[in-house]
Amino acid sequence: MFLKMTALGVLLHRGSYLRGFFNIIDFVITVMSLIPIISYFYRLTSSNATECLAYSYQETLVPVYLATLRVFRVFRPMRAIRISAFYIVVTGLLSSIKSIGRILVICVLVMSIFAIIGTILFRGSFFYCTDPNKPTERECKGHFFTYPTGDLSCPELNERQWLRHGLNFDNFGQSFLTLFSMITSEGWQIVMYNGYNSRLFQDTNEPVGPRPNSSPYAFIFFLLYMCIMTLVLLNMFIGFVIVTFQEVGIKAFRESKLDRNQRNCLYFALTTKPQFRYVPKFRWQERLLEVTRHPVFSLFIIISLICNSIILCLQTIEAAKETVYWINFFFTLLFTVEAILKMTALHPVNYFKNLWNFLEFLSTTGALLEFILQQTVISDGSDFRYSHFASSFRVLWLLRFVPQVRLIMWTVIKSLEIFPWVGLLLLVVVFTFAVIGMQVFGTIKRAPIESSMEYPGNHITQYNNFANFPQALLVMIRVTTGENWQEVMLSCKKNSPCESKPEHNCGSDATYFFYPFFYAIASILFLNLFVAIIIDNFDYLVKDKSVLGAHQLSTFVKLWSIYDPSASGELLPEEVIKLLKQCNPPVGWGILCPRIVAYRKMMDLNMPLVDEKVTFHATLFGLVKTSLDIGCSGCLECLHKCNVELKEKLRVLFPTCEQRILDQVLPVEDVSTVRRGYAVHLIQTRWRAFVRKRNETIQIFQGRERRSLIAGQRRLPDAGPELLERKLSDFELEEHSILHSPPQGSRKSSVSGVRTMTPASLTGYRFSFDQTHEERPLSGRWGEFELTSPPLAEDPSFSPQLRRQNEFSGEHDPDPFEEREDDEQSELSFSSAFGTPTTNPHLITHHHRETTV
């Protein structure tokens, strides 16, 4: 302390010693620790030698009690903990304490109002006589007989005592303490019954004892208070703590520009490793593995587990032990056969890598060994059976088949990651109060377990005391759970008998502050932090299912093991496309995803290539990055800059992540990626399709000199034979005459600079014109009609009529972008991606749509 003061200064300037919170605590604790030492040496230097020799250090009681505050030094090492989860817990706790001030004021005001009303109604009415036949203090004199054994021939003589209940309403402080103990739901009904039997509006100078049913309307006061405080305000207080804790977590993620879901998914992608999948070497092993993984086999095992559980539940003393014994033996033998089949199919080494298989083997073999020993070696007649114990835990195997239960299990697992840090804080608080309790309440007389009239209501026993640290720790844990904590508090009050000197009085009135304060911190605040963590994780897991979550990425890991059973972490891009098609969104793309769309999605992933393969972490990281819109996209330079920034951010967020993996998923150098490869692939595919189509068009064009042109959609042949056979209506006749009427003028237009036609020639019906090989194919727009060249008009790919005729005859149009076996493209490697070829002016797509003339 003196060294820090010398180095930092004492108080006046910024950064001095006494301007730090923990430094102030150290200063106060150190000074209080020095007080008894200084007092002791002062006594030793006194002139009276006899008094000096009779004096001992332990007689400075007050300084020793103050010196117990040294225990608060246990909070200092927490400053050195830099783990993010612990930081979030501590920050959330401190923020909760700061923000609950308003709701705490409301609770205190309501309790104060009820305390004042309770003092007016019940003051002086919570006294009683140890002899229930004496209702007043004047009558409660002398002795009376009791029969503790129930035998009238063995009475016990006891002195009458006029006592008062520990929880009463004699003054405002006692009323407030009584009401606080009631909101914890511990012993509140006893207080209500005492008020129900009390006599209201009594003078405090003449206290009277209880009389049965003397105040039948007193229960209204207690029930109203419990409804307001316990059901409304206390739950509001707890909810406020939970909401504040969640807001602190959200704020911490907001500052890093990544929400919690993004951080969890990124952490999963960077830390998860590919799983090894055993591939049977022999054909019979494959068959056996198919049998053990068949849904019918799994259903049979599930039904067997349920039946075995029902048999275990039916066991009673009157049950036929022999029948139940052999039924259990049958199920144990069945589960043993299942374990042997799986072990044979998977090989023992791979079988025991699965935790479920390991637990199943232990339970099955242990139960089988027990049956064998009972029949051959031992028979001790004990009712305990290892087979029953193991079978009860085997039911947990059913949880693997219920998706909702797996979601809850994932919630529990995610909560367990933060539970240790909340438990650490709670342990420090319990440790602190246990040490203080040893110093203040360690000398109280320990009463026997059985109740006696000598120590009525004393809950400081040989198993529940502050004599040593383990016992004190157990007492504080009991108070944390709220188990009859108010009785422990009353047992430590002032004037309690001492252990070493029964004639002296021990205990302290500090008990009225010690226990309520500890209960409020440990039970109401810390235990509800566990609830806040569970609610927070469960709310995160039941969010929109269309948004990718970390709990869904395990599906990708399992499917990767199918394509990469050796867990090498590398696959060909085409295998990755097949893998992602087997994953449903939001993890994958789905089985119905077109190949062109799959190529475009592969370009968005932009995974670096290593020997023409992609890695496990790069693929998973790319999925997370594109699904959750992390980072940026654009030109190559912008992409490299974003990769550098994101890598630095991930290095800060996940310091335990390997640098090799970060360089692998976020390459900052100009390396070969999937995007470049598939871009080349798409350009080549589109160009070959264009060339093939152009050649086919030229061949058709050279074969004919006179072609028909289709403009628009309205043609009688397209309408079908049934319209040609029926009589035309008046409206259709009028429309036909208008369409075929001669033009009123010599207006001419040029379409693509090939030929001029009058509007009457573009009525939407078939017409012909002469065209030589030297002329360019007709293409362009006329009014609202889009025209194509004559060769394309009769091509099935561009003519809706011919396409319908081909479909009716069973023929199908070839896909212009489909790769053919005789194409040179089949010899190329995968390393290509998508691009958009330039549009050929000789090929104008024909749009088939309805028009109104």
The Rg value, from CA coordinates, equals 44 Å
Strand portion: under 5%
CATH architecture level-2 label of the domain at 99-241: Orthogonal Bundle
CATH topology of the domain at 99-241: Helix Hairpins
Unreliable residue stretches: 53-64, 705-853
Please count the beta strands (DSSP E, at least 2 residues each).
14
Overall outline: extended
GO cellular component, one term: voltage-gated calcium channel complex
Biased composition (Basic and acidic residues): 804-817
Protein name: Voltage-dependent L-type calcium channel subunit alpha-1C
Domain Voltage-dependent L-type calcium channel IQ-associated: 556-608
